Amino acid sequence: MALASLLRPAPLFLLAGLLRLALLLYGSWQDAHSAVKYTDIDYLVFTDAARLVARGASPYARDTYRYTPLLAWLLLPTARAAAFGKLVFAVADLLAGALILRILLRRRGRAMSVEAAGGFAALWLWNPMVATISTRGSSEGLLGLLTMALLWAVETRRVGLAGLVLGLAVHFKIYPFIYAPAIVWWMDDENMGRLCHGRAKPAPSLAAAVVSFCSPDRIRLAVVSLATFTGLNLLMYSIYGSPFLVHTYLHHVTRIDHRHNFSPYNILLYLTSAVPSSSSSLRTESLAFIPQLLLSCVLIPLALAKRDLATSMMAQTFAFVTFNKVCTSQYFLWYMIFLPLYLPGSSLLQKPALGISALVLWLVSQAAWLQQGYQLEFLGHSTFFPGLWLSSLWFFLVNCWILGLIIGDGVGRLETKSTSKAHIE
Question: Where does the signal sequence lie (predicted)?
């Protein structure tokens, strides 16, 4: 009973806020008293860029600033209050949690109590990893907020708002474009509430099917999202010119980053970085996108999005991060935000042994990589091969297995949805 009372909205968010406040205070103390800083190096890049903008300069005058100028604009107050950005990211975490709770209650209705929904939302709100990353100064919380706002807008059929959020999210971080195919595929007459129950219609011709697929809602989503994305890009290009395109977008296509990288491409990128003029450089980075985009943009949306959009987005993001040529711990937040929506009814909860095994393997394989990374970064031991490579491969295989479980759950929900709908109606 005591725990259930803490899972009601007021105490749930109060404790989540206190957790982040405590971490902000602790981080300030550690930065002042320890050689190992709490603040993420990326936050120093953000704040330096914001100070440049405050002086009328370009944020790209700061080396390694690879983000939209919107982020530097948002953090302009850090020129006077250094912790302002961390506070913004922490608040974004909380707002994302509020949307998670709202989506859970809307999707589950009377089948889930407020306390049960709060328990799942706590997986994000009370998650120490989530709170630590945002209070260290990582902007991933903003992406979590945009992602949940996108899902909420789509499921509540606010098509114009969904297009606006999608365009903004892709401008902000590129990767949310993977959700566009899933959303478009999901937006059929049934899910948009326009299916007329009556006698079955004959199968349409190919031309009629194409015309029917290009529904007003789908066209509106495409137009609004593209207009938002294009408008923001034109605005930023008019102000900052080609450095905006190079650092915000083109850099990520040919990015070679072998440090703090869980990806099995780690060793290949390390070897490639030693010969930057190699003709195989572009080919290596380009080929890495093929399995990643095929899974996250085509196969998974086609298999899952029609009936369970949240599970599809979870699987898409998990595949995108797992197969990405650069994989850091911050990227884990991209799919962790979907956990509260995916877990209810999942095999990981219905079969506790399976869920515990997945969690333990995910943590242990990650710890094995971190142990090798510690020896490399702090002790100066050359662990790239075989230690770091084998641990990267192990972590990759564990993630592939978990991805298979998520997809299997999504397929299972496809088979049961029609039955559950009949009961609801």
Answer: 1-34
